[in-house]
Amino acid sequence: LKxxxxxxxxxxxxxxxxxxxxxxxxxxxxAELYQSGKLKQLLQDHGLLDxxx
Length: 53
Description:
This protein is α+β, with helices and mostly antiparallel strands. The chain has one domain: Glutaredoxin, CATH 3.40.30.10. Helices cover 49% and strands 13% of the residues. The protein contains three helices and two strands. A hairpin with a 2-residue loop joins strand 1 and strand 2. The longest helix has 10 residues.
């Protein structure tokens, strides 16, 4: 599984978080996106989160 992830995303780490089929990184990268507010914007941009949430 890790080999397939690495081939697909360039990352062999688990967890590997995907949004609409695109890898946004592992746990640490996702936490950084959350803390910076960029994760919320990314989810809103993809229609996965209402602007009021």
